[in-house]
Amino acid sequence: MKYMREFREAGATKALAKSLAGAAERLEVVRLMEVCGTHTMSIARFGLRSFFPENVMLTSGPGCPVCVSPHAYIDTAVAYCRRPDTIVTTFGDMVRVPGSSSSLESEQAAGADVRVVLSTIDALRIAEENPEKEVVFLAIGFETTAPTIAAAVLEARDSGLPNFAALCGHKVMPPAMAALASDPEIRIDGYICPPHVSAIIGGDAYRFLADEYGTPCVIAGFEPFDVLQGVLWLLEMIADSKPEVRIQYSRVVSREGNQAALAILYEVFEAKDDEWRGIGPIPGSGLSFRKEFFDFDAERRWPVEVEPTCVPEGCICGEVLKGIASPRDCALFGTACTPESPVGACMVSSEGACAAAFKYEGANR
Amino acid sequence: MIGSGGEKILLAHGSGGKAMHELIESLLLPAFRNPKLEPLGDSARLELGGRELAFTTDSYVVDPLFFPGGDIGRLAVCGTINDLAVCGARPLALSCALILEEGLPMADLEKVVESMRSAADEAGVEIVTGDTKVLPHGKGDRLFVNTAGVGLLPEGRRWLPGTAEPGDVVLINGHVADHGAAVMAERERFALRAEIRSDVAPLNHLIEALLEAVPDVRCLKDPTRGGLASALNEIAAASAVSIVLDEEAIPVRGPVAALCELLGLDPLYFANEGKVLAAVPPRRADEALAALRSHPLGRYAAAIGEAKPFDRVPLSARTLLGSHRVVGMLTGDQLPRIC
Amino acid sequence: MCVAVPMKLTSLDGHNGVAETGGVKLSINTMLLPDAKPGDYVIVHAGFAIQHLDVEEAERTLELIRELAEHEGDKEDTESG
Hints:
Chain A is built from 16 helices and eleven strands. Chain A is an alpha/beta fold. Chain C has one domain (5-80): SH3 type barrels, CATH 2.30.30.140.
């Protein structure tokens, strides 16, 4: 597998760990935040925390689209599961996320037609093959995924596909990162920016975080070498008090990003104020269909009645997502809330901070 | 609360991981409680006139019915033979019960039956009894197979699996995750092409060769549903040891590893249908490996880890970077992720 | 947040392509990367090519990794010697 395994080299990792220790010596406690679920997983999978110096704290922020999808989104998806002659298509990530009283998995067990797809294109194919049914696609994900749904919607429009629509739950990262950077409860000395969101939006999208908020940013890939080099560059910027945006993942990320993908994205969607599970409303942080594409907006095309939202007691997913609490601070962690019977999305998503902590570090408190 | 604590059976209850274990422990064991059932081994241990018999059963509900490297028929025969063999028993005879859905093409049934015949021949075991039922269209998922088997422990051979002890070396007879990856690739065949074949095979001859060479093998287990991770967690729990894997030593074929990267999955949780894990005393590890490697189904056998005194973490792995990660039990079937 | 993998684009017909890594071939769509052509390395996410992999940059990073690894190897030899 070219250009993947080579970045998992043990000797280089050790060398970087030493450089990290050296860079951290000049600093007090440093709080970094990563906002990418794949970073969370990679750090856990490769045990990268063991290479960080003691005074470098890394928290997992709200980088998991599943974790930040509000209960209402899941409840709406569940309503579509119960709707007659409807096929609900989804990425695998959503299947076990708990809503107010049910999940896609439970609905599937009760007989709903829920199908996991690898791409929105698969959902289009399912719609073509099942003309007598209506196919709803659960469109979640950040700026990496949203353009793929936009492209699929354009395909659907151009081919006149009559029975396909998407339930839009897309969110965009920079406004959320700004909200966290300006939250007095949270201290973020540096951001590890999401590599594949950045491949689309470009490094310059984070400039305002460095310029206006004084927060250094590194766009790091998620292979071990990338993460450690990214952290090293952050420590250097922090020590020098020179907040900038630096691109570590230079083999994929440019300053201007993928303009063609952005054009397609904003042809179909526009920004809106949106609600992030556990964080609350963030202006301009979500996407919704432009009116020319309302035919592909499931809620407008095929409205459904959704049960009233009910958030479980004791769940502190919001604080975990913001990085002010760690999974083990939650009274429900490992007891009422486990990967087999999750309460909050932080546990159900394989990228969620709680799931990662449980899987890789055990239930021990 | 949503999840396995609820009022409905979920798919997770059949996937071989935690939810299934909880169902067995909380419902089936109490209902049928008896000393022969309690060990919950791959086979039950029965005594008949001074000799020990192994008795086991398994049902096969795999979808798709046909996949590269095999089909439900081959799976049904090999699965039951392997469950007998990992106890140290020589398989004697199998039964085969078919539950067919009305409308199943005869050609499909013929293929499956032929696979069963050929797998049984490879193993040198006969199918001596069976049953056939047909469900109305829509009431069954094309074809279900149940096989049951009996085997006899050779005189003087210890019943396996025993328990692993600190210092034991953990061996496997070849590449992991082939079966699970083959089935997943087959399900995604619209978008995906991979040269991945299921490893489904009868292991009784391989295991005989191992046990002849190294009678003091301590523990055998076939890592089927739930993968290596679940099987090793079970061994660790039953033996009260901690097992540490060396990730780099675990053989995984290139395309299987690539498929896992693409779908965001972990090969340690994929099912294997032609693999056996063995825990052997350290001084016997080389001989055991040689015995495995001398057999076609053990050509790529490797030592992949060792047992240590229990330190709260039943199963962990040393990564290629030298760091460690905990390897937990499977929670529900692995689903492809994009995030 | 995104499972995205570098793959080599091996064939393209309009926007419908096939990309390969480690012996696995995947059907992908190149609408988001219209200048992608067979032979390119691309990053694939959710069945789409989302960005190019700059092979020169990748090789530069790998060269750094090799240097660090060698240097680390030398140091270990010295320390244990």
